[in-house]
Task: inverse folding
């Protein structure tokens, strides 16, 4: 779907549902809210409904408390009455978990705005692509090229949070000259970069810091000395009073070790476990994640497996990581 087609679709429809992936990050939340403010500028009826509660460190982005946690009793009829269902920052329907059925059963216009690889063929109306650093960048380009609305402070604030985080604070591969130019425009609209960074990264609960300390004590290297990994047990969260969102970013500590090219975090859950994977250079951890029902980008990917034991997967995952390391 081109930007021209997206603009026409927005103009001819009235009621919109917006949603994003399980355990949303700042690109997911920021993109949803930027698109929400875009649509409300056009006097559209918009509901933002997610599978998860918004992580505590991202709730500040929801200026007007518009994000709702999905409840089928309340929301299924609301979704059915909408004209357009817009999914942001994901490329497979199962990533909205409890809301998947509502998406699959939706018979009107469905749109996916995303920058991840290997989108599910289910999404006929795809906007964006892998050339973008973040879903927030797609929305910025859409606004600028279609001239559908004027950028304002509320939209700019959301887009800054989305792009800043998904570029790793402007240090990942896709941090181009264009990114810095568009960020400069967002700053001219009043966005305070120090404030946004502080609220996302420097306002952690004490439980998160204690959990990080325990996670770091589990850090190990493989025989090649090029892969670092650590493990977190569900028991630790319960004992410390931490939540699943608290582990966000922990895997990056693996890559901070000299000589390490791949970092993996194994995180035990009550109903299975999940893995976060990071790499440097051209090592495709997204292909590694794909082998274990996951996905993502070349240098940042992950997977979530249900009704299995984490201990049974650590060795095979590391063996496959070594394989991609040597390709």
Result:
């Amino acid at each position: 779907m081109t930007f021209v087609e997206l603009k026409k679709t927005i103009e001819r429809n009235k009621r919109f549902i917006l949603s994003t992936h399980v355990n949303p990050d700042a690109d997911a939340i920021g993109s949803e809210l930027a698109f929400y403010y875009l649509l409300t500028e056009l006097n559209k009826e918009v509901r933002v409904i997610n599978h998860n509660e918004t992580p505590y460190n991202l709730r500040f982005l929801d200026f007007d408390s518009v994000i709702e946690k999905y409840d089928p009793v309340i929301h299924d009829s609301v979704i059915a009455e909408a004209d357009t269902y817009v999914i942001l920052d994901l490329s497979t329907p199962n990533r909205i978990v409890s809301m998947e059925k509502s998406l699959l059963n939706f018979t009107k216009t469905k749109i996916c705005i995303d920058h991840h690889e290997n989108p599910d063929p289910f999404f006929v109306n795809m906007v964006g692509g892998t050339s973008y650093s973040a879903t927030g960048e797609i929305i910025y380009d859409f606004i600028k090229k279609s001239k559908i609305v004027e950028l304002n402070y509320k939209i700019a604030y959301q887009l800054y949070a989305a792009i800043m985080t998904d570029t790793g604070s402007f240090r990942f591969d896709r941090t181009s000259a264009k990114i810095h130019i568009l960020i400069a425009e967002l700053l001219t609209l009043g966005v305070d970069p120090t404030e946004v960074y502080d609220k996302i990264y420097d306002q952690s609960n004490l439980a998160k810091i204690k959990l990080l300390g325990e996670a770091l004590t589990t850090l190990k290297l493989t025989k090649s000395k090029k892969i670092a990994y650590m493990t977190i047990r569900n028991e630790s969260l319960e004992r410390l009073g931490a939540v699943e969102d608290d582990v966000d970013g922990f895997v990056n500590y693996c890559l901070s070790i000299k000589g390490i090219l791949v970092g993996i975090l194994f995180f035990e859950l009550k109903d299975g476990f999940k893995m976060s994977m990071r790499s440097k250079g051209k090592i495709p951890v997204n292909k590694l994640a794909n082998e274990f029902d996951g996905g993502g980008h070349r240098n940042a990917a992950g997977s979530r497996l249900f009704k299995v034991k984490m201990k049974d997967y650590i060795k095979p995952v590391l063996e496959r990581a070594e394989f991609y390391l040597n390709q």
Observations:
- The longest helix spans residues 26-41.
- The domain at 3-201 is CATH 3.90.1640.10 (inorganic pyrophosphatase (n-terminal core)).
- The chain has a mean pLDDT of 94.
- The two ends are 35 Å apart (CA to CA).
